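Ticket #4471: structure output looks truncated?

Reporter: J.K.
Steps to reproduce: submitted the chain below (394 residues) through the standard prediction queue, then opened the result file.
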Amino acid sequence: MRVIGMLSGTSHDAVDTALAELSFTTSPAGTPGDTLLLRPMGLLSTPFPEQLRQELVSSLPPAATTMEQVCRLDTELGRLFGRAAHRALTELAHGYADLVVSHGQTCFHRVEGRRTLGTLQLGAAGYVAQATGLPVVSDLRTRDVACGGGGAPLSATLDALLLPGTGRHAALNLGGIANLTVRDGTRIRAYDLGPANALIDAATRWASGGAEHQDTGGARARRGTVDRRLLARLRAEPYYRLPAPKTCGKERFHVDYLLAHLDGRRVDPDAVITTVTELTALLVADACRAHRPTTLTVSGGGVRNPVLMSRIRALAAPSEIRDSAVLGLPAQAKEAYLFALLGFLTVHGLPGSLPAATGARRPALLGSLTPGDGPLRLPEPAANMPRMLRVSQE
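Returned output as attached by the reporter:
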């Protein structure tokens, strides 16, 4: 199957859309269907219209919103995702694809302690189906929440198939929230570490009066120095002491959260950005000390921040830090390929979540299906859950 996978992250700057060719194949051991073959066929990023971006940001926690705004955002985000999917269908797939998988835009993730009470991704799938004529898998987190899970991190499903099966290896995604998957032989552990770009972006917007949305190239973090008092207050966050599996979101880690920890002090804005960058690196280092992975494979937007990556390398030693491209999936594209994979599993009747990662009572068959222009025809259900993923560039 040719599958278009797409999502918008917490920076709200673009919709990333990847085309994957996915198929079941036989493992080197000779077991039919226990290996997935993924052929990456390219990535496109469709920028957010600035007006839509501003409306989205102004509606997110801790801001108040209205049902009218939610309805308008669901519609406009659906149209944006539809345009992005149509562009991928035209430019990457040359008019031929079987399925679109749209994660949408996470706007609220309702968590109390370790318990997730609900999750909301906007971007109405009907507009994506209308724009492409293809069936769409969407709403990929709710079923796991209904099974008692956190709805995140779903990246563990891809990581568990992709990471080597011998030794102890880990995968880190630096999105708005940093999440980690550790594979030790057949044992999988995964959870959200805490904020990555969420607090860095919030600090940058605050420091620039809204003129800058992110610390491009880590320029401001490089100029500042760590404020030890602020860092100590941030490190005292109770979430970090909760046992895994656990999940968190920008509902907790936002600009008001940051300002509350400043406690009215006047701190150099660049120092605040440096401090929250250091916080993320320390969270990663803490996890590496706890799990002792030989390798840590990193993906997500945070890879483009050289200051953050430099601090992770320094603090997480002796774990070898490497880009996810070494496993065949570029750091910027990995999450889009993740959602292509999850949709592929769904239409073959296979679960897409791991209880070891989300805390659910059982693995869940994820998503909602919206038909395309023709009758909805699903492939034959797969007999077995694949045990590994092989990426082929051929």
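Triage note (M.O.): checked the attachment and the full token line is present. The longest strand covers residues 99-112.
Status: closed, working as intended.
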